[in-house]
Specification:
The chain contains one helix and eleven strands. Strands 1, 2, 3, 4, 6, 7, 9 and 10 form an eight-stranded antiparallel beta sheet that branches. It is elongated, with a radius of gyration of 36 Å.
Length: 186
């Protein structure tokens, strides 16, 4: 019986030792990994106004419109004419930032010009804003995508249409709300 008890104790100790070995072995198989943390700083995106949009001199008889393309050329329709002394220009902006980065720009919705030299309250509607990468009638605040070139630059041009009333009061009309062009990286 002593021998049997002794054998049971040895068997129990052997089983316990194997259990500890398996447990110890399982604990030694844990793994770890390292991760690299980095940050890349890029040149901030910026936009500058190179040229204002100027419809120049317009003669109005019975009303109509003047449409300016991206190059600054104007076409009059209806009872509107453009005197030979006019020197219209389309708006131009330069966007700068990190070379080849994609970005988008937001252009304004339609707005009005207000007579700064008249009796007050006279306006001209500006609509159908077109841009270098978003040609056509945009009509509402619109976001358009583009990319900077290899030197980190892009040039944007804008055209628009103005609608003039019959008997439009003579004067110098300017926008009282900003024609903001907002840029951001994608």
């Amino acid at each position: 019986m002593k021998k049997q008890n002794f054998m049971k104790k040895i068997t129990f100790m052997a089983i316990a030792a194997i259990g500890f070995a398996v447990t110890a072995n399982a604990q030694s198989t844990s793994q770890n990994a390292t991760v690299e943390v980095n940050a890349t700083i890029v040149q901030p995106i910026a936009i500058s106004n190179d040229r204002d949009m100027v419809f120049s001199y317009i003669a109005v008889s019975t009303g109509g419109s003047v449409t300016m393309n991206l190059a600054g050329a104007v076409v009059a329709s209806g009872g509107v004419s453009i005197p030979a002394t006019s020197a219209p220009t389309s708006a131009e902006f330069t966007v700068t930032g990190t070379p080849t980065y994609a970005y988008h720009y937001l252009i304004p919705a339609d707005f009005n010009l207000t007579n700064t030299t008249g009796t007050g309250g006279e306006t001209i509607a500006v609509s159908d804003i077109t841009s270098t990468y978003g040609n056509g009638v945009l009509g509402a605040a619109t976001s358009i995508g583009s990319a900077l070139d290899g030197s980190g630059e892009d040039v944007l041009n804008f055209g628009a249409k103005i609608t003039l009333a019959s008997g439009q009061v003579p004067g110098i009309y300017k926008n009282t709300t900003a024609f903001n062009v907002i840029v951001a990286y994608d």
